[in-house]
Amino acid sequence: MKKFFFITITVISALIICAFIYKISNSLNSINNNYYKIHLIFLSVILIGSIITIFLDNKKQDYIIIIIISVVFGLYIVESYLSIYAPSDRLLKKKVKIYKKITGKSYDIRSKYEYYKDVQKNNKNIALFIPPRFYPSEKIYSLSGISNVKTILCNELGYYSSYESDRYGFNNPDSEWDQPEIKYTIIGDSFAHGACVNRPYDIASNLRRLSKNSVLNLGYSGNGPLEEFATLREYLRPNVENILWLYYPNDLEDLIKELKIDVLNKYLDNSKFNQNLILKQKEIDHRAKKIILKKNPINEFNYFQFIKLNNTRGLIYELLPDKYKPSETQIKIGQRLSKFKQILKETKKLTSNNASKLFFVYLPEYSQYKKKYNDTNYQRIKKLVNELEIPFIDLHSLVFQKEINPFNLFPFNLPGHYNKIGYKKISDAIHKSVIDMKN
Predict the structure, then answer these.
(1) Partners of 216 in the beta sheet?
(2) Among 166, 212, 285, 365, which is most exposed with the fewest C-beta within 10 angstroms?
């Protein structure tokens, strides 16, 4: 029985080593090679150790089994602790103290679902924001939320932001769809969507104020490049002067998930493909409401990640030198950039056919202003966009680099989306850059 135990460990270690060797041979970036190599060395030690243990006497095998069980048990105790007191919880505690000190008020510490249930008691016409990929369907793949309803978005500033959704479930005053001319159409993820501020502090509202014209916001939290392209294909109006593609550094990670979704790939493979989502809003509303009534899937405990010791491994990675840290966006980066380039090419063609002007807006992340930030992907994206001759609005150099303390543009100087000041400054820079580039 003991030999079978160690033989099992040997076989599992050997299979994982083969998997890591395959990943190393298919990785196009040295950072990931180093990340895989450190795992390879660790697993090789386990493999060799388990082989040797098979031939040891029973007493020594007993000691080794006790050590293994103790280590595994200890790791899951650590994982349990980190799952209960996750980094997000520690970040929340910091915000609670700062918010109380600044405003004298109490930070709303309710979960999004708890807040929704409390508010719903007095307002039945209310909904939660849920990314469409959380409720896939064989019939349609929606790209927006529930229409004509107060939608709860997020809380990073002490209160839950919300908005009245338009006829198609986006964050706009509904009248924007009836305007004869649209100065800007915005596409992007949560930053375009308006997280986590109320109107008139989001980018779209700021641009309406600056341009004194209509602005249509098609951004939606959780979207990646392929969903954003699909959104343009479904909802782009013919009377749009400028299209702003808002890019955030995690977009390439989102692209990993999107490329596995057949219906999204159809937008890229077939220039005539369309789901006619504008005509299917009732179905989109119905499906999204059913999900909210069941339970908010975003807050469900992830047992698979717990088994994989996700939080514990993350804590260990933080202690490693940068070159040994995992970087999901680096894996097969050449292939992903190639797909992203194809998406931007098709977007440029689409906007040109629509007699609109496309602008690519780079949104910096919080970690970009910490020490030892690896800006390889930033440089790659900038080069790719320039090669496609798409005007590049670099908010890193236009706004954040000019700040004495760029963290002032984030909630309480902590990681998250931009605060009201941050959104205002980047909106000013976007509007001025568009005017300058078109003159």
Answers:
(1) 185
(2) 212
User: How many CA atoms, within 13 angstroms, populate the side-chain half-sphere of residue 242?
Assistant: 24
Same domain, 285 and 395: yes
For residue range 32-42, list pLDDT tens digits in order: 556 666 667 77
Quote the CA–CA distance of 412 and 94 in Å, as a whole number.
Answer: 9
Q: Is residue 322 part of a domain?
A: no
Place of tokens 């919080």: 366
Please tell me the number of Cα atoms within 13 Å of 256 on its side-chain side: 11
* Residue ranges in the chain modelled with pLDDT below 50: 27-31, 297-299, 328-331
Side chain identity, residue 189: D
pLDDT at site 324: 55
Q: Which structural domain range is residue 6 located in?
A: 2-84
The per-residue pLDDT for range 140-150, each reduced to its tens digit, is 899 999 999 99
Q: Which of 280, 192, 269, 271 is nearest to 228 (CA)?
A: 192
Please report, to the nearest 10 degrees, the dihedral formed by the alpha carbons of residues 383, 384, 389, 391 taken in order. Answer: -70
251 and 153 within one domain: yes
Other Cβ atoms within 10 Å of 300 Cβ, number: 8
CATH number, domain of 381, equals 3.40.50.1110
How many structural domains comprise the chain? 2
Neighbours of 412 (CB within 10 A): 22
For 413, the 3-state DSSP assignment is helix
Could you tell me whether strands 126-128 and 392-394 are parallel, antiparallel, or unpaired per DSSP bridges? unpaired
Report the phi/psi class of residue 416: left, alpha or beta, with left for phi > 0 and alpha for psi in -120 to 50: left
- φ/ψ of 30, rounded to 5, equals -65, -25
- Helix or strand or coil: residue 177? helix
* 434-438-439 Cα angle (round to 5): 120
Q: Is 55 part of a structural domain of the chain?
A: yes
Looking at residue 169, the DSSP 8-state letter turns out to be S
Instruction: Give a yes or no: residue 400 inside a domain.
Output: yes
What is the DSSP code (8-state) at residue 186? E
Cβ 214 vs Cβ 243: under 8 Å: no
Same domain? 177 vs 33: no
Which of these three, 32, 66, 84, is where a domain ends? 84
- Residue-wise pLDDT for 204-258, tens only, equals 999 999 999 999 999 999 999 999 999 999 999 999 999 999 999 999 888 988 9
Do 42 and 141 fall within a single domain?
no
Is residue 28 located within the same domain as residue 120?
no
- Same domain flag for 41 and 142: no
- State the CB neighbour count (10 A cutoff) for residue 315: 14
